[in-house]
Design a protein that fits this description.
19 strands; 251 residues; mainly beta; five-stranded mixed β-sheet; 2 domains; 40% strand
């Protein structure tokens, strides 16, 4: 956070801002172009500097999905400094550097298409002209583009992006129209983000844990085998077993 505070005296950080994320654009300017987005008391604020931090401009109405202390990441496309990607609960893209602001909306008819930000993944049930195949898992934590020269571009794959979320690692392939096709890379890998683990005082072979997005799971180990039994869905977190080892408490 101290490095963030030294960005510029013109960029004021709110005292309760939990996380700040920065992203540099390609070297198209004499001084570094930097985007800085952070949680300002529950509202996402987005700034840009084109002179290495001497002055900052706030960009209007960026996405603000909530949970910014948990999911907050920003990056810039490898070839265009106006191509900005934000990961919060959902995965957002702007082609104008967020200059106009606002969200595009394909739930309505006619669709809203003149704003800066378009969602490319997570939590959508409607058709989206910029996404195909599966949907992207929510809660983004990292976004990285494949570097130039690491793959052979074609009209169906001009850019490759990797997104890390609560659901694991997902690969996105952008075609020449800007559409992304998502492909999970955690195939068959059992991944769980446990908030708490409860042990049984009288049954050492029994444990229970609450997993983000994957509910509560009871594990029973015996004779060298382990059985994982799903108890509840949704967001599991606080899980414990009472002193007699017979009752589960879940929150």
């Amino acid at each position: 956070m101290e490095s963030a505070r030294r960005l510029s005296p013109h960029l004021r950080l709110w005292p309760n801002s939990a996380r700040l994320r920065r992203a540099k654009g390609p070297r198209l300017f004499p001084a570094p172009l930097v985007y800085a987005g952070f949680d300002a008391n529950g509202t996402y604020r987005l700034f840009v500097t084109k002179d290495g931090g001497d002055s900052w401009s706030e960009l209007p109405s960026p996405p603000s999905d909530g949970q910014l202390g948990f999911n907050n990441v920003i990056t810039v496309g490898p070839y265009n400094s106006d191509e900005v990607y934000i990961g919060q609960i959902a995965f957002w893209r702007s082609f104008d550097g967020g200059t106009k602001g606002g969200r595009n909306d394909y739930h309505v008819s006619p669709p809203v298409e003149s704003n800066s930000w378009t969602v490319l993944g997570c939590c959508l049930s409607d058709s989206n002209p910029f996404r195909k195949n599966l949907d992207l898992h929510g809660d983004l934590h990292a976004i990285e583009f494949a570097p130039y020269g690491s793959f052979v571009p074609s009209p169906s794959q001009i850019q490759i992006v990797f997104a890390a979320s609560d659901g694991g690692i997902t690969k996105g392939s952008f075609d020449s129209t800007g559409m992304v096709s998502w492909e999970p890379l955690t195939k068959g890998l059992a991944v769980g983000q446990a908030g708490t683990i409860g042990l049984s005082p009288v049954l050492p072979s029994v444990t229970v844990a609450g997993y983000s997005h994957n509910g509560d799971i009871l594990t029973v180990r015996q004779l060298g085998f382990s059985d994982d039994l799903a108890i509840m869905g949704g967001d599991g977190f606080q899980s414990s077993i009472d002193a007699q080892g017979l009752t589960l408490y879940l929150n």
